[in-house]
Amino acid sequence: MNPWYTRNMPFFFLTFFFPPLALLLLVWQWDKFTTDRGIKLFFTVGMTVFIVFGLLPRGSLPVVLPIIFGLIALKLVLNMFKRKTG
């Protein structure tokens, strides 16, 4: 059974109000998102870019972007290790 946040409407509201959190959930739980992964990824990245470039205070971009990309890279590395050992 898929978690509640993988359905379209909860994910839309989650993405609209908390885009970085939705992006991390999407990347972290990629296997649980069985339908419309591409559309959800496009919408989430778009909203995250809007939030990062539009609403954050000036000067916080060099701090926020490496954290987001570092977490995504960590997830990709963990997936790679899981595939090699499993």
List the helices and strands and how they pair.
Layout: H1 8-17, H2 19-28, H3 37-54, H4 61-85
Helix pairs in contact: 1-2, 1-3, 2-3, 2-4
Q: Describe the biggest sheet?
A: none
Element pattern in H and E: HHHH
Which whole number gives the mean pLDDT? Answer: 80
Helical proportion, percent range: over 70%
Shape: flat
Number of extended strands: 0
Transmembrane segments: 12-29, 41-57, 63-81
Keywords: Membrane, Transmembrane, Transmembrane helix
List keywords for this structure.
4 helices; 86 residues; 73% helix; mainly alpha; 0% strand; flat
What is the gist of this entry?
Keywords: Membrane, Transmembrane, Transmembrane helix. The chain is mainly α and 86 residues long.
